Predict the 3D structure of the following.
Amino acid sequence: MTSQSLKGTTVLVTGAAGGLGKAIATAYLSEGANVAICDINETRLNATREEFESTGRFLALKSDVTDEAAVQSLVEETVAKFGRLDILVNNAGMMDAFDPVGDLSKQTWDRVIGLNLTGSFLCMKYAVAQMQKQQEPRGGTILQIGSNASYMGFCAGAVYTVSKHGVAALVKHTAGHYGDEGIYAVGLMLGAMVDTNISEALGMHGFNQAAYAKNASASFRPEADAVQLRDVAKYCVFLADRSIAATANGSCVPFNKNWPKA
């Protein structure tokens, strides 16, 4: 970790003790940024803390992004350590079991909406409040991890699709309202990945095989179609450039190896 191109920049990545979030956090650290992460998996969080705390630019906090008080504290602790918040990466999320609406339980609906959509809203809310207070460089950037399911209707289950459509709307509205304050929002609409932990919270013991067989995702070929974590992380670093973020403000960018084909 020798690059200093983002020295003095503070990044908060949610759900980042493993999988995609950890890859993103590692990429920012490698560029010299101060990085705070949160996760609810304490074992994985402790291991990641041990791996990176020697940099002196790393903070790992156990936090539930569906809890408003916890999110407020997360942002406050990040700012207390590093002085500001320049970039929020809203990565925390969970997959569904491909249930169509007729098979979907309210319990699953509430859990997925709570984490994917409400959690993203709460993190944006407190990130924006902090970014509005900051002196030069004013503002900040919010990167929202979305999905093919943010703009396609039939490549996941019903509740995941609704939640990811919702985060795309959050990006567009936040970009429109706060862009003139130097606060930019960009969505990355990711294709399928095979080396994340997105399915852990729900548990694939409830996977709806019959529904999946009818779904567009049934055509997925991991060896050809999977999006690589390192490439998503590089894109997040690219968007740390304030001029690029300003130009991309309000964009929801497909990043999916053209699967399903455009």
The beta strands are 10-14, 34-39, 58-62, 87-90, 140-147, 183-190, 252-255.
